[in-house]
């Protein structure tokens, strides 16, 4: 698109140019038309034209002064001057400002077309070249950034064996680590949150903060501090700033573990492990954005007998009886004890794996049911290893065990109805949107294909058929009760922005068109 501004104090010429240009090509757009340079200069920043077609002799501000102003404020804009046969000296002065294109009055349409086409081609080529340069510059910057992150990730992970490229060795991470610093390990609740954290970290590079994506949903931040003894205040200030900047636009939750102060490359891996352990200790935090320091954990390992006692007694007996309600009560008691003792994260993950293993060993067929309730490609034990806090972990365990045992105890219909009713409610809330089976199945913790089968068994309809019936029911209701809505507006409200397609679907389902149905 070529945006054009026209300036000429003669109305017939100005309006004639507007008319000609508007009919030439849809790629040409007149964004402003003015009778003098002063009026046009007031709108330059708002309109930002690609091309200005201007007369030279005008009142208030002539073409030459306007061209000088244009060059100062929009240096990339082109200028096409209009001149009479007696204005050659003016035109020559304009050319000193870099103006290469001019038209002699009265304007010849063919000559105008040639000039516009030539200018449009040159501007597009210049824009493409600029974009290419910007892309190359961005790629170079990103390459340096990724190399820098690669070396930092290697240092924090304690890997001093794997060879790296010469380019990586040239990056100045070791120089950076010669100053005192603290490490922040930020554990995200999901991948989207991790990417948001990494983007924030990269935006802080100008302040000396280094960031790098680590394993799973983890981001490490290296924060310079005045000295090893004065670590808490700058590191904690950075953590609070991160919370403040992201909490209202966050795509999930996160918890920050802050290491003590250290210095040198040799201390990096130990500092990261300390910060990581603290961030994992945040699993006991209830707030969405938490900060954990060395004063709060991690706790000392619990005695093995503590975990053994949790898995015996009521839990084992309930498993043997396939008593889903009893198992639920036992799990609630287990997690209440875990929250009281607060064992280290690694011990907690191992306990959850042992809990599921015990259940699978006690109940034949339970593993098959657990697999059905686990996302594709994710192991049963893995599916409960990365939950963000204790409450989410407990709810996931309860969901897995209760639903699986209901099915195994011949209460499949009751359990299935509960899930399908939940799915129905979600569909009823968003029936006018494009609902993805994968999104619905994720919200009820089911495999997509299994949810589809269960829905058909319980309702006699596929999810697509159910959505279609619901949309038609809502459409009929709107057609009768909302006479202020046009037929196409009814279609939009029930999820069909294409009026023709809405008419086609409605007639197929109801037997008549929406308009005919309204007129019944």
From TrEMBL:
<dbReference type="Pfam" id="PF00072">
    <property type="entry name" value="Response_reg"/>
</dbReference>
<keyword id="KW-0804">Transcription</keyword>
<keyword id="KW-0902">Two-component regulatory system</keyword>
<dbReference type="InterPro" id="IPR018060">
    <property type="entry name" value="HTH_AraC"/>
</dbReference>
<dbReference type="InterPro" id="IPR018062">
    <property type="entry name" value="HTH_AraC-typ_CS"/>
</dbReference>
<protein>
    <submittedName>
        <fullName>Response regulator</fullName>
    </submittedName>
</protein>
<dbReference type="Pfam" id="PF12833">
    <property type="entry name" value="HTH_18"/>
</dbReference>
<feature type="modified residue" description="4-aspartylphosphate">
    <location>
        <position position="55"/>
    </location>
</feature>
<keyword id="KW-0805">Transcription regulation</keyword>
<dbReference type="InterPro" id="IPR020449">
    <property type="entry name" value="Tscrpt_reg_AraC-type_HTH"/>
</dbReference>
<keyword id="KW-0597">Phosphoprotein</keyword>
<feature type="domain" description="Response regulatory">
    <location>
        <begin position="3"/>
        <end position="120"/>
    </location>
</feature>
<dbReference type="InterPro" id="IPR011006">
    <property type="entry name" value="CheY-like_superfamily"/>
</dbReference>
<keyword id="KW-0238">DNA-binding</keyword>
<dbReference type="InterPro" id="IPR051552">
    <property type="entry name" value="HptR"/>
</dbReference>
<dbReference type="InterPro" id="IPR009057">
    <property type="entry name" value="Homeodomain-like_sf"/>
</dbReference>
<dbReference type="Pfam" id="PF17853">
    <property type="entry name" value="GGDEF_2"/>
</dbReference>
<dbReference type="InterPro" id="IPR041522">
    <property type="entry name" value="CdaR_GGDEF"/>
</dbReference>
<dbReference type="InterPro" id="IPR001789">
    <property type="entry name" value="Sig_transdc_resp-reg_receiver"/>
</dbReference>
<keyword id="KW-0963">Cytoplasm</keyword>
<feature type="domain" description="HTH araC/xylS-type">
    <location>
        <begin position="421"/>
        <end position="520"/>
    </location>
</feature>
């Amino acid at each position: 698109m070529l945006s054009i501004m026209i300036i000429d104090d003669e109305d017939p010429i100005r309006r004639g140019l507007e008319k000609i240009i508007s009919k030439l090509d849809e790629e040409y757009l007149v964004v402003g038309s003015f009778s003098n340079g002063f009026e046009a200069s007031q709108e330059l920043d708002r309109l930002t034209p690609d091309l200005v077609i201007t007369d030279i002799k005008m009142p208030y501000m002539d073409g030459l002064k306007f061209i000088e102003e244009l060059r100062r404020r929009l240096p990339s804009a082109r200028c096409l001057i209009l001149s009479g046969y007696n204005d050659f000296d003016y035109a020559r002065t304009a050319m000193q400002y870099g103006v290469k294109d001019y038209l002699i009055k009265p304007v010849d349409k063919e000559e105008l077309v040639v000039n516009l086409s030539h200018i449009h081609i040159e501007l597009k080529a210049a824009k493409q070249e600029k974009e290419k340069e910007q892309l190359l510059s961005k790629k170079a910057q990103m390459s340096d950034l990724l190399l820098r992150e690669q070396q930092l990730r290697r240092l924090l992970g304690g890997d001093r064996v794997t060879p790296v490229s010469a380019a990586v060795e040239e990056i100045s991470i070791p120089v950076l680590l010669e100053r005192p610093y603290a490490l922040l390990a930020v554990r995200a609740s999901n991948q989207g949150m991790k990417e948001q954290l990494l983007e924030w970290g990269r935006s802080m590079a100008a302040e000396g903060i280094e960031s790098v994506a680590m394993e799973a949903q983890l981001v490490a931040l290296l924060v310079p501090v005045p000295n090893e003894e004065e670590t808490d205040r700058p590191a904690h200030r950075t953590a609070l700033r991160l919370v403040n900047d992201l909490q209202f636009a966050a795509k999930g939750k996160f918890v920050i573990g802050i290491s003590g102060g250290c210095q040198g490359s040799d201390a990096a891996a130990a500092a990261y492990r300390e910060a990581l352990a603290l961030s994992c200790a945040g699993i006991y935090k209830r707030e969405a954005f938490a900060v954990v320091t060395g004063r709060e954990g991690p706790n000392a390992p619990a005695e093995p007998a503590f975990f053994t006692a949790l898995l015996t007694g009521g839990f084992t007996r309930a498993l043997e009886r396939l008593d889903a309600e009893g198992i639920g009560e036992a799990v609630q008691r287990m997690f209440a004890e875990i929250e009281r003792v607060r064992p280290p994260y690694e011990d907690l993950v191992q306990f959850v794996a042992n809990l599921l293993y015990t259940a699978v060993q006690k109940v034949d067929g339970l593993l098959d049911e657990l697999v059905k309730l686990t996302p594709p490609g994710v192991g049963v034990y893995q599916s409960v290893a990365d939950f963000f806090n204790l409450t989410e972990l407990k709810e996931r365990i309860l969901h897995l065990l209760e639903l699986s045992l209901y099915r195994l105890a011949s209460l499949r219909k009751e359990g299935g109805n509960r899930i399908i009713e939940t799915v129905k409610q979600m569909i009823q809330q968003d029936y006018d949107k494009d609902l993805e089976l994968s999104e619905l199945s994720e919200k009820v913790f089911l495999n997509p294909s299994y949810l589809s089968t269960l829905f058909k068994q319980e309702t006699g309809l596929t999810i697509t058929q159910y959505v279609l019936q619901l949309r038609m029911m809502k459409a009929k209701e709107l057609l009768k009760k909302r006479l202020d809505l046009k037929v196409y507006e009814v279609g939009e409200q029930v999820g069909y922005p294409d009026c023709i397609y809405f008419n086609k679907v409605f007639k197929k389902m109801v037997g008549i068109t929406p308009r005919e149905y309204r007129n019944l």
